[in-house]
Specification:
The protein is mainly alpha-helical and 346 residues long. The chain contains nine helices and two strands. The chain crosses the membrane at residues 193-217.
């Protein structure tokens, strides 16, 4: 796996012996399949525990969301690696499952584009702040008037920005309704392992996307609540994370942006209250330094999250392209019943 390279014969397992793991109902799995499944699930559980913060202030921060998107990237890469290790031919996969996967992947790509749009708007607001900081370098009345105008521009930009994620609730609800995928192949041990793994991928993907959508929309309307059967080794870690996020409080602010807004309000108030020249220079300069620091922190955080969203987009896209490539290679297959070649329509 991408995050675990230990051979199947290792004697020590940090999350318990995978050969004693609970496996998909009705399955008789080989030791190799049990190991692959347990390795994936333990890796997922570890990632979920890292997201479960002890501080409410960490939830809905850009750094937390970047860590969440990183987990999605790693998890999807792990699935791709697991599929390769299963050596399960695409021709054995149920066509309904393939259609479902391709439909889901398109929706995930659309969601990533909308997240990128939200982050791009925040970056555009940073240009307004840079102009304000330039004018705030001087205490002359003329420059302060321009600075005040720029600070007003930041407030207007944030309040008037158009959010594209508010329409995600129906999409996420639909994806949640598709958690129970059809079997890859009837009575296939490998297929059952893949379905067991894909359930985990879908749950975590849906939940993290719903958290980001709620944060960007400033509302918990998109937040999903999912009950996980205890047959999954990562169930407890997910339940704790979900409880942690749901109890974090308001979804009306993004932590770093909220800190930026506070600095802008304080400076704006000071400038407006001291246009007569009675500016307290030291206090004013300290506030300018605070604004510069918060602006830089926000920019770095947005850039980091943007890179993680872009990486997830490419992971999903590459997985989709790989599957389509395999399907094209399998377009013409041997019809064992007639001994003739038949064409599979995509």
């Amino acid at each position: 796996m991408s995050r675990s390279q230990e051979p199947p014969h290792r004697l020590f397992f940090p999350f318990g012996n995978p050969f004693r793991a609970r496996t998909p109902k009705g399955s008789k799995l080989s030791s190799k399949l049990v190991f692959l499944l347990a390795t994936f699930e333990d890796s997922l559980a570890e990632g979920l525990r890292k997201l479960t913060s002890k501080s409410e202030n960490d939830i809905l921060s850009f750094s937390w969301m970047a860590l969440a998107m990183k987990l999605l990237c790693e998890t999807h890469v792990d699935v791709k690696t697991l599929i390769e290790e299963l050596e399960l031919p695409v021709s054995d996969w149920d066509e309904k499952w393939l259609d479902e996967y391709l439909d889901i992947s398109v929706k995930l790509l659309d969601i990533c584009n909308d997240f990128s749009s939200e982050l791009s708007q925040l970056n555009q607001g940073h240009l307004v702040l840079r102009c304000a900081l330039h004018n705030l370098a001087s205490t002359s009345l003329n420059q302060l008037v321009h600075a005040c105008s720029s600070l007003d521009g930041w407030n207007q930009h944030i309040s008037n920005r158009t959010s594209r994620v508010k329409s995600h609730s129906p999409i996420l609800d639909r994806l949640k309704g598709s958690l129970d995928l059809p079997k890859v192949q009837k009575n296939s041990a490998k297929g059952k392992v893949l379905m067991h793994v894909m359930y985990g991928v879908k749950v975590v993907t849906l939940f993290i996307c719903s958290v980001l959508a709620s944060a960007f929309a400033g509302s918990s309307v998109s937040l999903l609540s999912i009950n996980i059967p205890d047959t999954y080794r990562w169930a407890q870690a997910f339940t704790e994370l979900q409880k942690n996020v749901n109890s974090s409080g308001s979804f009306t602010v993004l932590r770093e942006r909220d800190a930026m807004d506070e600095s802008v309000k304080k400076l704006h108030s000071m400038i407006q209250g001291n246009v007569d020249g009675g500016m307290k220079v030291e206090e004013f300069q300290n506030l300018v330094v605070d604004l510069g620091r918060e602006a830089e922190k926000l920019t770095q955080s947005v850039d980091h999250l943007t890179k993680q969203v872009d990486e997830f987009f490419h992971v999903v896209l590459s997985g989709r392209d790989a599957l389509l490539s395999n399907l094209r290679e399998s377009e013409t297959v041997l019809d064992q019943g007639s001994g003739e070649l038949r064409t599979r329509h995509l």
